[in-house]
Structures are given as structure tokens and as C-alpha cells.
Amino acid sequence: MTTFDTLILGDIRTMNPEMSTAEAVAVINGEIAWLGTRAEAEQLTAQETQDFGTQMILPGFVDAHIHPILGAEMARGFDLSEVTTTQQLDDALTQAAASTGEGEWVFAWGLDPTVIADRNICAADIDRSVVDQPVFIRMFDAHSGVVNSRALQLSGVDGTEQFKSQSEVEIDAQGKPTGFLKEWEAMNLVNQVMPAIPFETRLELFLEVLESMADEGITGGQILDRTDGMLDLVRAAEERGELPIRLTFSPWIMPGDQDEIITEIIDMQGTTGRRWGVDGVKLMIDGTIDNGTSWLSYPDINGQSTRPLWLDPASYREVLLRLDAQGIRTTTHAIGDAGVEYVLDVIAETTQPHAADDKPGHRIEHIETLPDRLVPRFTEVGAAVSMQPRHCTLFCAPDGSDNWSQRLGDDRRKDAWRTNSIRQTGAVVAIGSDWPVAPSDPLAVIAEGELRRQVGKPETEPVVPDEALSREALIAGYTSDRARSWGETDRGMIANGMLADFTIFDQDVFAVDADDLPTVNVVATIIGGKLRRPANTASAAR
Ligand SMILES: [Zn+2]
Asked: Which residues belong to any copy of the Amidohydrolase domain (predicted)?
């Protein structure tokens, strides 16, 4: 008779429509080998038993979109996300400079552009508080940054720079850089002269983030970016012990990337460690609405967001079709409706099997504004989608006073984050956080995907409440549908042959009131049959 490694008991919700509940699951070699009732389980032998009583066991939650390595740079230095006035900005920067060594770089992040009305924040706004030290502030959308005069001087940025992507060093009427830098290539000019974060520090920060995600009930995440030495970093992390969550790397290919970089990324596919692997490629067709760099079918209120990130989108098409021909899955950041449509048109040309066998070959990230006519097209071309409900609830004010809504105007605000309309067409919708752009806690993401407003604030008006997803759809977005969105057949459900990855909660997460979801505790996560308890039961970083 078979001896199982582990027998796990509890209120099991499989997310498998063929057998939606169970009371016991048995694991061998990190995989699910048996599923049944408590009574049936009494007949089994296992080396160990984990009995969770009436607590709820779900397939391990996987965040479809995270940046745990790049995050160290994206969230470097002082957190300005609570700053709402110029006075607060001055105070925060003065304090940040005072607590940084003389002449050293001051880093900050998370700043909301609405802190300065009617124009982009510029060097003079920072010079007011910090003159002798170079300052770099990354804006909250991570797609733009602002530096002070000292940093401009050190980097030699003079406003005459040319880019391979739709990046921009903003200049004033005299042609001098204002200090505002749009998109990666422009920010890189300054990044090059900043002190790099030491490898050991990056490793510590990386592991810290993964631990806190595991505390929140996450068992896996898809890393959608590319950072120097990222595989060295994950290998070093795995030398120390098991990763707290599984990781899928889908490195990005950016406009202007040379052929040798593209080849390197293609060759990297299939590289694996114990709990990580490289699978697929991230692409970006545009920037963000907040930054005026998304690709809209007609301009925003400032006359911006009219172009793709690729100076010639045909080069994007070429890269995607080349990857597709090699059987490599892609996911494309597409925020504006013109960008989304372009990506859909390219996906329509792909040849890899997708909708037909229920394995979408390609995916689209974000989709922040979408007219009716484009809603049915995801299923038509077999594209999966990946959306982040808290980009809507945290950064969109229900009264339309925020930068995103202002730029789009009233006619387009109603087309915000159409999660429900898209899912109703039968499209596969994966859910995620885009950490560190928004917090990673999946229960808060689920609550706000359903409420369309911030959790615990019932007095707040929701943003386009018709686009709310059901609890079931949101949980599927972290489990079964997330796996389908990436063509993964070995996870996302509790069924025989699947990886033994589970997330265990102390309450029924299908039944709890959405505003009470933050009171649900993560009891444990299990990866490949290995149990991990959260550092503290009231999980961190809410
Ligand atoms: Zn992202």
C-alpha cells in the first residue's frame, strides 16, 4: 500500500469545477496524489498529517504581476506616497536629506503627481529643500522620475538626448531640462550615475519582499521585468534555502534592445531552479495615462498619450511574432485603448495554439480604459488578460479629481478597468498587484476588485461599480484562471498531478463580507507539500 508523504485535512475548495470540494488531500514528491473525504483518508498511511480542522484550504495564490527585484530600485529610499501638499513634500525632502550622509544621493518614491497642479513637478520644486545633495524621486506610477539641479548636473543631462523609445527629458521654453524624466530610457540617464545598490543589499531586500508576500498567503508570483544579474540573485537566494514563494521570470524586451539581448532572453527560456523558472517574455506597447505616455485613440486633456512606447510599433509586432514562432509566450503592458487594440491585432496574427485548447498563448497587462467595441476581442483572438484592481481603487478618486481621471476626461472615465465586461465575454482574467506599484496583499486586492473602492471605507463612492468582479472570479484570478492565463497545467487547482501548493485561511474567504476580508488570517502556505507559517498571524504590510 502507498505511503504518502503528507496528508492534509481541512475545508478544501479545489477551484476545479469537476470536484469543487474535498476534506483531505495526500501529497507525494511535492505533488497531489490523492483527494477525498476525511473518512476515506482514515484508510491511508502518511508520514505526517496536517489537520487544519474547519479552516479553508485553497490552491496556492499566485500574483500574476510583481517586481520583487526591481522593487528595490522602484521603492528605493523614502516613501512619499502619503504626501499630498507641497508643504509636506518640502518637509519630507528636508528630513530625507538630513538623514542622508553629506553629499550623498537622496532617493524617494511613490509621489502622486497631483501634488503639483497644472504642470509636472520639476527640479526647482526639489531645489527649494535640497540643493547640495543630488535627489531622485520616482513617481508613483514608476514610469517617470524627477531630479533636482544637483542630480541634473552630475548626470550631464542637458535636454538634447535622443531615445529609442518614447522617452523624454522634459525641457522648458529655453530648452533646458526641467528635471522631469519620462519613461525608462530618460530615467536611465540619471540611474547610470547613481550608486548601484550592492548585491547583498538587493538579496536581503528581495528575500524580505518574498517573505512578506508569503506571510500574505502568496505561494507564487510572475516577475515581469528584467534587472541586471536577476538570475544570479535568485540563485544566491536559493543557495540560502528554499524561496518563500515560487517565481516565474518573464524578462522584458524593450524598444531598441539589440538582437543579442533578444537572443539572450530567448536562450534563457526554460532555465529553472528548485522554485523558479524563466517562462515567457514581457513587452510594453505604451507607458501610463498618469505620465501622458499611454497610447490612446485620441489625446488626453493635455494633448498627450498619443503614441506607442516603440517609436515604430511594427518593431514590437516583429518581436512578438518572432517569439510566438519559437513557442514563447508573451504578455504585453498595454494601458491605453489604442495600445490594447494594436496588441490584439498582433496576437490575432500569432500561430501558437491558444483559445482552441484553452491555453491562451499571449496575455495583455493592465487595460485601463477600453471602449465597448474592443471588449469582445480578447476571446476572438485568444488573448488572456491580467489586471490589477487596486490601480483603480488606490489611484482613482470616485469624484474624478485625480490625475488619471482628469487626463482622460469624463467621456472615458466610465471605461475604467472593465474587469467584469471583459470576463463576461469568456476571457481568462488573471489578477495581481504590480507590487510595489500597489500593495501585494491578495485579500485586499480581492476585496477592492469586488468593491471598486478602498476596503474598509464604505462611505467612499465606488469607481464604475458595474465592473466589479465576483468573489469567485477574483479568487480564480489568483488560482485557476491565473494558471490558465499562462498556459500552466500543473497548478491553479487542487487535483491529482498538480503541485501541492496551498494557501490556508482561518475563515471562509468566499463568505466573508468584502470589507471584512482584511480580518481573515493566513494560517499557512504550503509549497510542494512543505508547510510555512506566517511570521505573525495578522499578516504584514496591509
Ligand atoms: Zn508592472
From this structure: 55-530
